[in-house]
């Protein structure tokens, strides 16, 4: 992605429901990489009061977009206009107190870097920063793998296993245990996972073997997150078989499957390549904890 530093005047505007078609047109530049934002626009149409979409426009055209998740803590910049992203970041600094205590900036690497130049400010450095790879699985790329009918959406009776595995996943990936830092919120989110079917599990006589979540779903793409295999069953083909099954099912509804992975996670990257995923773009995430 090439960013430009033109200095023409731009305007920053909070988007409202009538702006939906314009925003979707901007996101349609890459509906696979932008699937999470597309899904948010389609779901909420800018109508959630605590969640904000902001756009930077030059000559009436959107050149950068910013989502501020007042519920989730997701701060999602997008665009190829470095100056506009910095301006959106400076604007968003005033909204840091309205975000959850833990929030994260995630998106295309260069857009995140431009955002972090001004947001959330020098007095609040990231607790953790990751460089990642955004990958996608196009139609027809998935190899033949034995089917796995045991893979299914989590149910209420899976709560204890989903709760425990989710905590271990977060401790591995983000170096913190949600049971310690946000026990009530984590318990609520686990209940939602088991209620809404966004988390998929493979459990048998061995217990919970594998889990993964679907964080966004449109006709163009399904975004997978939180891929986890129980430590006792790693390096035994479990993740390959289970993720292949999940991708096969998702591609019955969406054209592509996508995910992002830490660029230092060589085993996971190798697995995704074996399943037919291709590198799409550089991605980045920065995690913050604001003082209460």
CATH class of the largest domain: Alpha Beta
Question: How would you state the average pLDDT, rounded?
Answer: 94
Radius of gyration: 19 Å
Going across the biggest sheet, name each strand in turn. 1-2-3-4-5-12-6-11-10-9-8-7
Tell me how many strands there are: 12
Instruction: Report the span from N to C terminus.
Output: 37 Å
The poorly predicted ranges are 1-5
Give the tally of structural domains: 2
Largest sheet: 12 strands, mixed
Order of secondary-structure elements? EHHEEEHEHEEHHHEEEHEHE
Tally of helical segments: 9
**What structural class do you assign from the helix and strand content?**
alpha+beta
What is the general shape? globular
| Helix content percent band | 25-40%
CATH superfamily of the largest domain: Gcn5-related N-acetyltransferase (GNAT)
Strand content: 25-35%
Q: According to CATH, what is the topology of the largest domain? A: Aminopeptidase
**How does CATH name the architecture of the largest domain?**
3-Layer(aba) Sandwich
Topology record:
Layout: E1 10-14, H1 20-27, H2 35-44, E2 51-58, E3 61-69, E4 74-79, H3 82-92, E5 102-108, H4 109-116, E6 128-137, E7 152-153, H5 159-174, H6 178-181, H7 183-196, E8 199-204, E9 207-217, E10 221-229, H8 238-250, E11 256-262, H9 266-274, E12 278-289
Parallel strand pairs: 4-5, 10-11
Antiparallel strand pairs: 1-2, 2-3, 3-4, 5-12, 6-11, 6-12, 7-8, 8-9, 9-10
Helix pairs in contact: 1-2, 3-4, 5-7
């Amino acid at each position: 992605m090439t960013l430009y530093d033109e200095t023409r005047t731009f305007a920053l505007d909070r988007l409202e429901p009538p702006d939906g078609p314009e925003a979707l047109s901007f996101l349609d530049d890459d509906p696979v990489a932008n699937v999470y934002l597309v899904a948010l626009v389609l779901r909420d149409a800018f109508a959630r009061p605590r969640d904000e979409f902001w756009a930077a426009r030059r000559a009436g055209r959107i050149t950068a977009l910013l989502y501020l998740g007042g519920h989730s803590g997701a701060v999602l910049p997008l665009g190829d206009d470095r100056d506009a992203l910095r301006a959106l970041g400076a604007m968003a600094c005033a909204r840091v107190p309205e975000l959850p205590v833990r929030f994260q900036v995630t998106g295309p690497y260069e857009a995140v870097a431009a955002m972090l130049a001004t947001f959330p400010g020098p007095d609040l450095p990231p607790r953790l920063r990751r460089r990642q790879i955004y990958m996608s699985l196009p139609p027809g790329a998935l190899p033949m793998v034995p089917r796995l009918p045991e893979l299914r959406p989590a149910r209420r009776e899976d709560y204890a296993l989903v709760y425990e595995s989710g905590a271990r996943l977060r401790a591995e990936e983000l170096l913190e245990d949600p049971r310690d830092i946000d026990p009530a919120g984590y318990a609520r989110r686990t209940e939602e996972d088991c209620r809404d079917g966004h988390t998929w599990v493979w459990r048998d006589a061995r217990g919970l073997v594998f889990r993964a979540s679907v964080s966004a779903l449109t006709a163009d793409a399904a975004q997978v997150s939180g891929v986890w295999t129980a430590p006792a069953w790693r390096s035994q083909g479990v993740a390959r078989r289970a993720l292949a099954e999940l991708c096969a099912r998702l591609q019955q509804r969406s054209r592509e499957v996508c995910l992002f992975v830490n660029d230092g996670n060589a085993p996971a990257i190798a697995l995704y390549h074996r399943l037919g995923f291709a590198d799409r773009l550089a991605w980045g995430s920065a995690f913050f904890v604001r003082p209460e």
